[in-house]
Backbone:
């Protein structure tokens, strides 16, 4: 299939953030607190995701939640009592930061009453998309770009170049490949692929490549028709986005973009611990002191082993 470039750029101004999952891997903490509100140093995960979208030029964001996740919505709403207290006590810098959070983008929230998978969540966004292409950022995954362009912005550039839906891709080691949807296809450039096939959670020996779908997408509005045609899986009747993408790739085409970025799966406890350390070491205020603490801690551990 020949891939055509756009004659006129289509600007992406909308994003959907699915954030309805239970977060069972972080129980008992997530019994009362949404997993998307787990902090990385001093900001909850959902704020990093919204900031990424806003930095890419997204102005309207739909966050798909579930019952008991009101804390996410409250995080982005004005709190006049708190703001008044900060103003009276002269904590202007903190007040300014809170007000910036409220103005990152226009946020809309919708509740996913039946938790039937990522595809089921995205079906709730059809009216919001209103026929336009839109970005999708998973709400429990932080992606830190290695360039000035955020990860979702890199996918948007790919969409603007090829006028095809785009999924984020990342290289995955063999021992983790069975956790992902793995793709095959033809490289169009150093970091962009025309996807021709997709295998969900293959055994390492059966994986068509080491490239896995990775938590960021730019989708066109026809994805909703493919989602409606997708099979339902398991007792919960889950609808997989990967099923819809596979159908879409065989008819209209699909690109993959290996973003110059690092992904942090906050739903995984070990990955969360690693991310906490990395983000602590990058913190503007505490990085030097935190690094000294870690060095002393590791040195102490080594000294203990030597005794």
Residues:
């Amino acid at each position: 299939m020949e891939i055509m470039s756009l004659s006129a750029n289509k600007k992406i101004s909308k994003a959907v953030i699915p954030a309805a999952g239970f977060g069972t891997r972080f129980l008992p903490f997530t019994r009362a607190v949404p997993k998307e509100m787990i902090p990385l140093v001093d900001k909850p995960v959902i704020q990093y995701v919204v900031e990424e979208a806003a930095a890419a030029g997204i102005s309207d964001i739909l966050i798909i939640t579930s019952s008991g996740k009101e804390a996410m919505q409250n995080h982005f709403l004005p709190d006049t009592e708190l703001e008044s207290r900060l103003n009276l006590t002269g904590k202007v810098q903190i007040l300014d930061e809170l007000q910036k959070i409220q103005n990152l983008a226009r946020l809309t929230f919708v509740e996913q009453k039946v938790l039937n998978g990522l595809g089921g969540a995205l079906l709730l966004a059809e009216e919001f998309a209103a026929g336009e292409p839109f970005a999708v950022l998973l709400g429990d995954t932080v992606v830190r770009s290695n360039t000035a362009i955020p990860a979702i912005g890199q996918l948007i550039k790919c969409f603007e170049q090829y006028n095809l839906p785009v999924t984020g891709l990342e290289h995955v080691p063999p021992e983790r490949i069975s956790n992902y949807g793995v793709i095959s296809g033809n490289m169009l450039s150093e970091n962009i692929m025309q996807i021709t096939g997709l295998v969900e959670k293959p055994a390492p020996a059966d994986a068509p490549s080491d490239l896995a779908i990775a938590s960021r997408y730019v989708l066109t509005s026809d994805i909703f028709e493919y989602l409606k045609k997708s099979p339902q899986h398991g007792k919960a009747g889950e609808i997989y986005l990967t099923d819809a993408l596979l159908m879409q790739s065989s008819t209209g085409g699909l690109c993959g973009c290996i973003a110059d970025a690092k992904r942090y799966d906050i739903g995984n406890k070990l990955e969360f611990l690693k991310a906490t350390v990395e983000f602590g070491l990058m913190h503007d205020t505490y990085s030097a002191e935190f690094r000294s603490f870690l060095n002393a801690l590791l040195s102490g551990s080594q000294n203990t082993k030597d005794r």
